[in-house]
Amino acid sequence: MIKMRELEKFEISVLNLCKDDKLREKLRNKMLKSKQPTDPFQLKKIENKIEKANKKIS
């Protein structure tokens, strides 16, 4: 079994932008599986993905 790590504050704040619960949970699990904190480039990609999903919901 993969040991999950705690999310950093900046990772949590990016996830909180997401309005879609399913997408938020999917991204959260993906972040938890990585052994190290998400780098700024990956965070920006995730943020763009969240913004796209939020536009579809609106």
Automatic annotation (TrEMBL):
Lineage, highest ranks first: Archaea, Methanobacteriati, Thermoplasmatota, Thermoplasmata, Thermoplasmatales
Name of the protein in question: Uncharacterized protein
